[in-house]
Automatic annotation (TrEMBL):
It comes from Mycolicibacterium chubuense (strain NBB4) (Mycobacterium chubuense). Pfam families: DUF222, HNH. Residues 123-141 have a biased composition (Basic and acidic residues). Belongs to the Rv1128c/1148c/1588c/1702c/1945/3466 family. This is HNH nuclease domain-containing protein. Residues 120-159, 194-219, 382-402 are annotated as: Disordered. It comes from the Bacteria. Signal peptide: none annotated. One of its GO terms (molecular function) is nucleic acid binding. Residues 303-354 form the HNH nuclease domain.
Length: 424
Protein backbone atom coordinates (compact mmCIF):
# COMPACT_ATOMS: atom_id res chain seq x y z
CA UNK A 1 0.00 0.00 0.00
CA UNK A 2 2.82 2.40 0.78
CA UNK A 3 4.44 1.87 -2.62
CA UNK A 4 1.10 2.43 -4.36
CA UNK A 5 0.52 5.65 -2.47
CA UNK A 6 4.08 6.77 -3.24
CA UNK A 7 3.53 6.11 -6.95
CA UNK A 8 0.23 8.02 -6.91
CA UNK A 9 1.65 11.05 -5.09
CA UNK A 10 4.74 11.09 -7.32
CA UNK A 11 2.53 11.06 -10.42
CA UNK A 12 0.57 14.01 -9.06
CA UNK A 13 3.78 15.86 -8.26
CA UNK A 14 5.05 15.28 -11.80
CA UNK A 15 1.78 16.63 -13.24
CA UNK A 16 2.07 19.71 -11.02
CA UNK A 17 5.68 20.22 -12.18
CA UNK A 18 4.46 20.02 -15.77
CA UNK A 19 1.95 22.80 -15.14
CA UNK A 20 4.63 24.88 -13.38
CA UNK A 21 6.83 24.53 -16.48
CA UNK A 22 3.97 25.80 -18.65
CA UNK A 23 3.49 28.81 -16.38
CA UNK A 24 7.22 29.57 -16.41
CA UNK A 25 7.20 29.29 -20.22
CA UNK A 26 4.54 32.01 -20.38
CA UNK A 27 6.49 34.16 -17.92
CA UNK A 28 9.63 33.72 -20.04
CA UNK A 29 7.82 34.50 -23.29
CA UNK A 30 6.31 37.73 -21.95
CA UNK A 31 9.40 38.65 -19.89
CA UNK A 32 7.28 39.06 -16.77
CA UNK A 33 10.28 38.21 -14.60
CA UNK A 34 11.79 41.62 -15.38
CA UNK A 35 8.64 43.41 -14.23
CA UNK A 36 8.83 41.55 -10.91
CA UNK A 37 12.38 42.83 -10.29
CA UNK A 38 14.15 39.50 -10.95
CA UNK A 39 17.36 39.36 -12.99
CA UNK A 40 16.31 36.24 -14.96
CA UNK A 41 13.47 33.76 -15.24
CA UNK A 42 15.53 31.23 -13.27
CA UNK A 43 15.99 33.76 -10.45
CA UNK A 44 12.24 34.35 -10.41
CA UNK A 45 11.55 30.59 -10.15
CA UNK A 46 14.08 30.16 -7.34
CA UNK A 47 12.50 33.09 -5.51
CA UNK A 48 8.79 32.43 -6.06
CA UNK A 49 8.88 28.61 -5.96
CA UNK A 50 11.34 28.36 -3.07
CA UNK A 51 13.64 25.90 -4.89
CA UNK A 52 17.40 25.74 -5.27
CA UNK A 53 19.07 27.71 -8.10
CA UNK A 54 20.04 24.43 -9.82
CA UNK A 55 16.43 23.19 -9.89
CA UNK A 56 15.25 26.62 -11.00
CA UNK A 57 17.70 26.47 -13.92
CA UNK A 58 16.28 23.05 -14.87
CA UNK A 59 12.72 24.38 -14.88
CA UNK A 60 13.74 27.48 -16.84
CA UNK A 61 15.64 25.45 -19.43
CA UNK A 62 12.71 23.06 -19.93
CA UNK A 63 10.31 26.00 -20.21
CA UNK A 64 12.56 27.64 -22.83
CA UNK A 65 12.67 24.44 -24.94
CA UNK A 66 9.09 23.40 -24.31
CA UNK A 67 8.04 23.56 -27.98
CA UNK A 68 10.92 21.28 -29.01
CA UNK A 69 10.01 18.42 -26.64
CA UNK A 70 6.20 18.04 -26.68
CA UNK A 71 6.22 14.26 -26.07
CA UNK A 72 8.56 14.52 -23.07
CA UNK A 73 6.44 17.32 -21.63
CA UNK A 74 3.27 15.31 -22.22
CA UNK A 75 4.77 12.47 -20.20
CA UNK A 76 5.55 14.96 -17.42
CA UNK A 77 2.01 16.39 -17.44
CA UNK A 78 0.52 12.88 -17.31
CA UNK A 79 2.76 11.93 -14.38
CA UNK A 80 4.68 9.22 -16.26
CA UNK A 81 8.00 11.12 -16.32
CA UNK A 82 9.69 13.17 -13.62
CA UNK A 83 11.00 16.72 -13.83
CA UNK A 84 14.58 15.54 -13.41
CA UNK A 85 14.20 13.10 -16.32
CA UNK A 86 12.66 15.61 -18.70
CA UNK A 87 14.92 18.41 -17.46
CA UNK A 88 18.03 16.36 -18.18
CA UNK A 89 16.79 15.78 -21.72
CA UNK A 90 15.99 19.46 -22.26
CA UNK A 91 19.41 20.54 -20.97
CA UNK A 92 21.51 18.24 -23.18
CA UNK A 93 19.49 16.71 -26.03
CA UNK A 94 19.72 17.89 -29.62
CA UNK A 95 16.78 19.24 -31.58
CA UNK A 96 14.56 16.59 -33.11
CA UNK A 97 15.31 13.97 -30.45
CA UNK A 98 12.02 14.30 -28.57
CA UNK A 99 10.54 10.95 -29.66
CA UNK A 100 13.78 9.06 -29.09
CA UNK A 101 14.34 10.24 -25.51
CA UNK A 102 10.63 10.17 -24.57
CA UNK A 103 10.67 6.44 -25.27
CA UNK A 104 13.99 5.92 -23.47
CA UNK A 105 12.92 7.93 -20.40
CA UNK A 106 10.00 5.54 -19.79
CA UNK A 107 12.47 2.88 -18.58
CA UNK A 108 15.73 4.73 -17.82
CA UNK A 109 16.93 6.46 -14.67
CA UNK A 110 18.27 10.01 -14.69
CA UNK A 111 21.83 8.68 -14.51
CA UNK A 112 21.21 6.38 -17.49
CA UNK A 113 19.69 9.26 -19.45
CA UNK A 114 22.77 11.38 -18.81
CA UNK A 115 25.03 8.57 -20.02
CA UNK A 116 22.90 8.05 -23.13
CA UNK A 117 23.13 11.74 -23.91
CA UNK A 118 26.93 11.52 -23.66
CA UNK A 119 26.89 8.75 -26.29
CA UNK A 120 24.97 10.88 -28.76
CA UNK A 121 27.22 12.24 -31.51
CA UNK A 122 28.06 15.91 -31.37
CA UNK A 123 26.60 17.96 -34.22
CA UNK A 124 29.12 18.63 -36.98
CA UNK A 125 29.51 22.15 -38.34
CA UNK A 126 27.95 22.68 -41.73
CA UNK A 127 30.54 22.74 -44.52
CA UNK A 128 31.13 26.08 -46.10
CA UNK A 129 30.20 26.34 -49.78
CA UNK A 130 33.20 26.45 -52.06
CA UNK A 131 33.59 29.64 -54.08
CA UNK A 132 32.92 29.38 -57.78
CA UNK A 133 36.19 31.09 -58.67
CA UNK A 134 39.20 30.23 -56.59
CA UNK A 135 41.01 33.38 -55.44
CA UNK A 136 44.68 33.80 -56.03
CA UNK A 137 46.78 32.38 -53.21
CA UNK A 138 47.86 34.93 -50.67
CA UNK A 139 51.25 34.15 -49.23
CA UNK A 140 50.95 36.82 -46.54
CA UNK A 141 51.06 35.03 -43.19
CA UNK A 142 47.99 35.56 -41.03
CA UNK A 143 48.67 37.39 -37.79
CA UNK A 144 48.60 35.17 -34.75
CA UNK A 145 45.58 35.74 -32.49
CA UNK A 146 46.30 37.76 -29.39
CA UNK A 147 46.40 35.62 -26.25
CA UNK A 148 43.53 36.11 -23.87
CA UNK A 149 44.36 37.24 -20.31
CA UNK A 150 44.22 34.30 -17.91
CA UNK A 151 45.28 33.43 -14.38
CA UNK A 152 45.66 29.89 -13.06
CA UNK A 153 46.40 28.82 -9.52
CA UNK A 154 48.00 25.64 -8.16
CA UNK A 155 48.24 25.13 -4.41
CA UNK A 156 49.54 22.59 -1.95
CA UNK A 157 49.90 22.67 1.82
CA UNK A 158 53.23 24.52 1.63
CA UNK A 159 52.93 27.04 -1.23
CA UNK A 160 50.82 28.44 -4.05
CA UNK A 161 51.90 28.92 -7.67
CA UNK A 162 50.23 31.53 -9.87
CA UNK A 163 50.55 31.49 -13.66
CA UNK A 164 49.59 34.75 -15.39
CA UNK A 165 49.17 35.19 -19.15
CA UNK A 166 48.79 38.74 -20.50
CA UNK A 167 48.79 40.30 -23.98
CA UNK A 168 51.81 42.40 -24.87
CA UNK A 169 50.36 45.80 -23.91
CA UNK A 170 48.97 44.64 -20.56
CA UNK A 171 52.21 42.75 -19.89
CA UNK A 172 54.18 45.95 -20.50
CA UNK A 173 52.05 47.78 -17.90
CA UNK A 174 52.55 44.92 -15.44
CA UNK A 175 56.33 44.87 -16.02
CA UNK A 176 56.55 48.64 -15.55
CA UNK A 177 54.61 48.44 -12.29
CA UNK A 178 56.82 45.63 -10.98
CA UNK A 179 59.98 47.47 -11.98
CA UNK A 180 58.80 50.65 -10.28
CA UNK A 181 58.05 48.90 -7.00
CA UNK A 182 61.26 46.90 -7.15
CA UNK A 183 63.32 50.06 -7.70
CA UNK A 184 61.65 51.66 -4.69
CA UNK A 185 62.37 48.62 -2.53
CA UNK A 186 66.02 48.52 -3.66
CA UNK A 187 66.41 52.24 -2.91
CA UNK A 188 65.09 51.72 0.62
CA UNK A 189 67.30 48.67 1.02
CA UNK A 190 70.42 50.59 0.01
CA UNK A 191 69.54 53.53 2.26
CA UNK A 192 69.13 51.23 5.26
CA UNK A 193 72.46 49.51 4.42
CA UNK A 194 74.30 52.85 4.20
CA UNK A 195 72.79 53.97 7.52
CA UNK A 196 73.84 50.72 9.13
CA UNK A 197 77.39 51.05 7.81
CA UNK A 198 77.63 54.66 9.01
CA UNK A 199 76.60 54.04 12.62
CA UNK A 200 78.23 50.59 12.79
CA UNK A 201 75.33 49.20 14.75
CA UNK A 202 75.11 45.95 12.84
CA UNK A 203 71.51 45.63 13.97
CA UNK A 204 69.51 45.06 10.87
CA UNK A 205 67.72 42.32 9.07
CA UNK A 206 66.88 39.49 11.42
CA UNK A 207 65.97 41.76 14.33
CA UNK A 208 68.62 40.18 16.60
CA UNK A 209 71.14 42.72 17.99
CA UNK A 210 74.65 42.10 16.78
CA UNK A 211 73.68 39.42 14.31
CA UNK A 212 75.32 41.33 11.46
CA UNK A 213 72.91 39.75 8.96
CA UNK A 214 71.47 41.91 6.22
CA UNK A 215 68.14 41.18 4.54
CA UNK A 216 68.51 39.95 0.98
CA UNK A 217 68.11 42.36 -1.90
CA UNK A 218 64.42 42.74 -2.87
CA UNK A 219 63.34 40.38 -5.63
CA UNK A 220 60.57 40.49 -8.21
CA UNK A 221 58.38 38.52 -5.81
CA UNK A 222 58.86 41.23 -3.18
CA UNK A 223 57.92 43.85 -5.77
CA UNK A 224 54.77 41.88 -6.63
CA UNK A 225 53.75 41.75 -2.97
CA UNK A 226 54.40 45.48 -2.65
CA UNK A 227 52.17 46.06 -5.68
CA UNK A 228 49.41 44.01 -4.06
CA UNK A 229 49.76 45.86 -0.76
CA UNK A 230 49.64 49.23 -2.52
CA UNK A 231 46.40 48.21 -4.23
CA UNK A 232 44.96 46.83 -1.00
CA UNK A 233 45.67 50.06 0.86
CA UNK A 234 43.80 52.12 -1.73
CA UNK A 235 40.70 54.07 -0.79
CA UNK A 236 37.35 52.31 -0.66
CA UNK A 237 36.17 54.15 -3.75
CA UNK A 238 38.77 52.25 -5.76
CA UNK A 239 37.70 48.84 -4.52
CA UNK A 240 35.87 46.56 -6.97
CA UNK A 241 32.76 46.46 -4.78
CA UNK A 242 32.20 50.22 -4.87
CA UNK A 243 31.60 52.83 -7.48
CA UNK A 244 35.08 53.79 -8.69
CA UNK A 245 34.20 56.82 -10.81
CA UNK A 246 34.47 60.50 -10.04
CA UNK A 247 31.39 62.16 -11.49
CA UNK A 248 31.63 65.86 -12.34
CA UNK A 249 28.13 67.26 -12.74
CA UNK A 250 26.89 70.76 -13.54
CA UNK A 251 23.58 71.63 -11.89
CA UNK A 252 21.66 74.80 -12.83
CA UNK A 253 19.76 76.16 -9.85
CA UNK A 254 17.14 77.72 -12.12
CA UNK A 255 16.42 74.51 -14.02
CA UNK A 256 15.80 70.95 -12.76
CA UNK A 257 18.46 69.49 -15.07
CA UNK A 258 22.07 68.45 -14.74
CA UNK A 259 24.78 67.59 -17.24
CA UNK A 260 28.05 65.73 -17.16
CA UNK A 261 31.19 67.81 -17.48
CA UNK A 262 31.78 68.22 -21.23
CA UNK A 263 29.03 65.64 -21.72
CA UNK A 264 25.31 65.21 -22.33
CA UNK A 265 22.36 66.16 -20.18
CA UNK A 266 21.35 63.70 -17.47
CA UNK A 267 17.86 62.52 -16.79
CA UNK A 268 16.68 62.48 -13.19
CA UNK A 269 17.09 58.69 -13.02
CA UNK A 270 20.61 58.71 -14.51
CA UNK A 271 21.72 61.60 -12.28
CA UNK A 272 20.52 59.87 -9.13
CA UNK A 273 22.11 56.54 -10.16
CA UNK A 274 25.51 57.99 -11.05
CA UNK A 275 25.77 60.11 -7.93
CA UNK A 276 24.33 57.60 -5.44
CA UNK A 277 27.64 56.10 -4.25
CA UNK A 278 30.39 57.90 -6.12
CA UNK A 279 32.99 60.59 -5.58
CA UNK A 280 30.88 63.42 -6.95
CA UNK A 281 31.95 66.96 -7.68
CA UNK A 282 28.94 69.19 -8.27
CA UNK A 283 29.31 72.63 -9.84
CA UNK A 284 26.34 74.87 -9.14
CA UNK A 285 25.36 77.31 -11.87
CA UNK A 286 22.82 80.08 -12.33
CA UNK A 287 21.89 81.31 -15.80
CA UNK A 288 24.68 79.13 -17.17
CA UNK A 289 27.43 80.70 -15.01
CA UNK A 290 29.28 78.72 -12.29
CA UNK A 291 28.70 80.13 -8.80
CA UNK A 292 30.38 77.47 -6.63
CA UNK A 293 31.43 73.86 -6.25
CA UNK A 294 29.83 71.25 -4.02
CA UNK A 295 31.71 69.01 -1.62
CA UNK A 296 32.42 65.29 -2.03
CA UNK A 297 30.37 64.28 0.98
CA UNK A 298 28.20 61.46 -0.30
CA UNK A 299 31.00 58.87 -0.47
CA UNK A 300 30.64 55.88 1.86
CA UNK A 301 33.93 55.52 3.74
CA UNK A 302 35.60 52.25 4.58
CA UNK A 303 34.31 52.01 8.15
CA UNK A 304 30.71 52.69 7.12
CA UNK A 305 31.04 50.21 4.25
CA UNK A 306 32.13 47.47 6.65
CA UNK A 307 29.17 48.20 8.91
CA UNK A 308 26.84 47.93 5.90
CA UNK A 309 28.36 44.60 4.84
CA UNK A 310 28.07 43.23 8.36
CA UNK A 311 24.40 44.27 8.59
CA UNK A 312 23.05 43.47 5.11
CA UNK A 313 25.33 40.63 3.94
CA UNK A 314 23.59 40.54 0.51
CA UNK A 315 21.38 42.59 -1.81
CA UNK A 316 18.47 44.04 0.17
CA UNK A 317 15.92 43.28 -2.57
CA UNK A 318 13.95 40.21 -1.43
CA UNK A 319 14.76 37.07 -3.36
CA UNK A 320 17.99 38.36 -4.92
CA UNK A 321 20.71 37.04 -2.63
CA UNK A 322 23.62 38.59 -4.59
CA UNK A 323 26.71 39.01 -2.40
CA UNK A 324 29.37 40.42 -4.80
CA UNK A 325 29.72 43.83 -6.44
CA UNK A 326 27.12 45.46 -4.19
CA UNK A 327 26.49 49.22 -4.27
CA UNK A 328 25.76 51.40 -1.24
CA UNK A 329 22.45 53.08 -2.00
CA UNK A 330 21.02 56.17 -0.28
CA UNK A 331 17.41 55.28 0.60
CA UNK A 332 16.57 58.95 0.72
CA UNK A 333 18.68 60.40 -2.04
CA UNK A 334 21.59 62.59 -0.97
CA UNK A 335 20.52 65.45 -3.18
CA UNK A 336 17.08 65.36 -1.50
CA UNK A 337 18.66 65.84 1.93
CA UNK A 338 19.31 62.22 2.78
CA UNK A 339 22.30 61.77 5.11
CA UNK A 340 25.20 59.39 4.51
CA UNK A 341 24.66 57.32 7.62
CA UNK A 342 23.88 53.70 8.38
CA UNK A 343 20.14 54.16 8.78
CA UNK A 344 19.83 55.77 5.34
CA UNK A 345 22.05 53.32 3.47
CA UNK A 346 21.41 49.83 2.13
CA UNK A 347 23.39 47.44 -0.06
CA UNK A 348 21.90 46.54 -3.45
CA UNK A 349 23.33 44.71 -6.45
CA UNK A 350 24.07 46.71 -9.64
CA UNK A 351 21.04 45.19 -11.42
CA UNK A 352 18.52 46.27 -8.78
CA UNK A 353 20.34 49.58 -8.26
CA UNK A 354 19.76 50.48 -11.91
CA UNK A 355 16.21 49.11 -11.73
CA UNK A 356 15.43 51.38 -8.78
CA UNK A 357 16.73 54.53 -10.46
CA UNK A 358 14.80 53.65 -13.60
CA UNK A 359 11.59 53.37 -11.61
CA UNK A 360 11.14 49.60 -11.97
CA UNK A 361 11.32 49.01 -8.21
CA UNK A 362 10.95 51.35 -5.24
CA UNK A 363 13.08 51.24 -2.08
CA UNK A 364 11.82 53.14 0.95
CA UNK A 365 13.08 53.17 4.50
CA UNK A 366 14.58 53.67 7.01
CA UNK A 367 16.91 50.71 6.73
CA UNK A 368 15.44 48.84 9.72
CA UNK A 369 11.95 49.13 8.18
CA UNK A 370 12.91 48.65 4.54
CA UNK A 371 10.07 48.21 2.03
CA UNK A 372 10.75 47.17 -1.57
CA UNK A 373 7.91 47.31 -4.11
CA UNK A 374 7.71 46.44 -7.79
CA UNK A 375 6.54 48.69 -10.60
CA UNK A 376 2.88 48.08 -9.70
CA UNK A 377 3.40 49.04 -6.06
CA UNK A 378 3.21 45.47 -4.70
CA UNK A 379 5.54 44.80 -1.77
CA UNK A 380 8.22 42.19 -2.51
CA UNK A 381 9.03 39.57 0.12
CA UNK A 382 11.52 36.74 0.34
CA UNK A 383 8.77 34.15 0.93
CA UNK A 384 7.79 31.76 -1.86
CA UNK A 385 4.27 31.49 -3.25
CA UNK A 386 3.61 28.13 -1.60
CA UNK A 387 0.34 28.02 0.34
CA UNK A 388 -2.20 25.49 1.50
CA UNK A 389 -3.92 24.02 -1.62
CA UNK A 390 -7.65 24.59 -2.03
CA UNK A 391 -8.15 22.53 -5.20
CA UNK A 392 -7.96 18.75 -5.61
CA UNK A 393 -4.73 17.28 -6.97
CA UNK A 394 -4.53 16.88 -10.76
CA UNK A 395 -5.56 13.62 -12.34
CA UNK A 396 -2.35 11.79 -13.20
CA UNK A 397 -1.21 8.25 -13.80
CA UNK A 398 0.79 6.63 -10.99
CA UNK A 399 4.49 7.03 -11.54
CA UNK A 400 5.95 3.64 -12.41
CA UNK A 401 9.51 4.92 -12.71
CA UNK A 402 12.47 3.25 -14.37
CA UNK A 403 12.67 -0.53 -14.58
CA UNK A 404 15.75 -0.60 -12.34
CA UNK A 405 17.59 -2.95 -14.66
CA UNK A 406 21.24 -2.59 -15.54
CA UNK A 407 21.63 -0.86 -18.89
CA UNK A 408 23.49 -2.87 -21.52
CA UNK A 409 24.95 -0.10 -23.63
CA UNK A 410 26.26 -2.58 -26.18
CA UNK A 411 22.77 -2.78 -27.70
CA UNK A 412 21.89 0.88 -27.31
CA UNK A 413 21.61 2.91 -30.51
CA UNK A 414 22.27 6.60 -29.77
CA UNK A 415 20.13 9.26 -31.36
CA UNK A 416 21.47 10.25 -34.76
CA UNK A 417 20.62 13.79 -35.86
CA UNK A 418 19.04 13.84 -39.31
CA UNK A 419 21.04 15.74 -41.95
CA UNK A 420 19.38 18.87 -43.30
CA UNK A 421 17.45 18.40 -46.54
CA UNK A 422 19.42 19.03 -49.70
CA UNK A 423 18.79 22.33 -51.43
CA UNK A 424 18.93 20.58 -54.78
Amino acid sequence: MLFEELAELTGQRNAIDGRIVEIVAEVDRDRLWAAAGARSVASLVAWKAGVTPARAETIATLAHRLDGFPLCHQGLREGRLSLDQVGTIAERAADGSDEHYAELAASATVTQLRFALKLAPKPKPEPRPEPEVEPEPDHTPEPAPAPQPSISKTSDEHSTTWRITLPALEAAKFDAALASHQDALITDWKRDHDTEAADGSGQHGSGQPGSGQRPPMPTTADAFLALVEASWDAETSRRPHGQHTTVVAHLDLDKPVAALHLGPLLSDADRRYLTCDATCEVWFERHGRPIGAGRTTRTVNRRLRRALEHRDRCCAVPGCGATHGLHAHHIRHWEDGGPTDLNNLVLVCPYHHRAHHRGLITITGPADQLVVTDGAGRALSSASLARTPTTPPPAAAPYKGPTGERADWWWYEPFQPQPPPSKN
